[in-house]
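Minutes, project check-in

Agenda point 3 was the complex the collaborators sent over. CS summarized: two entities, 340 residues total, and the question is how they sit relative to each other. Sequences were read into the notes so everyone works from the same version.
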Amino acid sequence: MILLGKVALGIAGTALAGVGLVCSEGMIEVNVVEKQPEAHHVYVLAPAMLVPIGTHFIPKHKLGQAAAEIQPWLPTIRAALEQLRAGEDITLVDVREPGQHVRVTKDGGSVVADVTDEDETVHVSTPIRAIESTIEQVAAASPDTHD
Amino acid sequence: MLKAMRAIGVCCVLALTMSNLGVTAMAAPATERYLHVKVDDATKGESVNVNLPLSMAAAILPTVNKGTLHNGHVTIGEADFNGVDVRALLDAIRTAPDNEFVTVKQKDQDVRVAKSNGNLIVHVLDKSKDGQKVDVTIPMKVVDALFSTVKDNELDVAAAIRALSDAGDAVLVTVQDATEHVRIWIDSRSASD
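CS then shared the predicted structure for the full assembly.
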């Protein structure tokens, strides 16, 4: 009985550690609400770590162009994200026009984009660490990169 | 054995707490300064607000190497200065007392360049474009930093940003015409309102 308990505890502990690891970079949240009569509502909450992991499995030759374009800007992106992560919460951009409102903010450890127009509202929240990891993964696919 | 495990656990918690406190204390930033850009178009009901921490701008600029911008310096061709020795001109302005240096009044346009309270002030009134009014106020320290490079054909934008960080709250640019209002300013508030 004790042995069974230890095994169960081991499995539960491993599962908890796995969940903790997967969620360690935070969660990506996507919320799309249509304002049409037949309104659709899409809500996705996924571990941010899945994005860089998923990027890792994309064939390098398919990321070649994106990687080549990102490579020269990598120091700039790194500096920007580092400063963004270290800084306090801020509304970076806020654009309003009749029927439309776009807002990009830094909220906690995430970059949040909110778009509201006459047809739908879109909310996307992405952890900065996940953005960093994904960009590093894409840049690593560049033919110029030597590991 | 149990006591030893407890003692190790307590030590680990204490060490983590102390290290977190240390990191927090080291990371405590000086008062952050923000560059704000606000564009309002009353007739179209449009508005654009951009808020940028100056520390971010200072960190990003040296990393950009594209076109005329390299390591926080902008290269300017001789043609852009039209043969004018800008450094000598600025030196003359710096050492001069507060004064109005240029006043041009034309049928369509008024231009005024002055130095006042340590600021370089440029005022342009364009009577032909719905009375467009442009006011630029740049602290002389920022102008000095801009021209602090060794090379004559370069502007040190990164140094200017750093100088802006040390300057007080200031409205740098305002542009007002019949429909649009543009305002660029720095302060220590992260929000523009």
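Noted in discussion: DSSP finds six helices and twelve strands in chain B.
Follow-up: revisit at the next meeting once the mutant set is ready.
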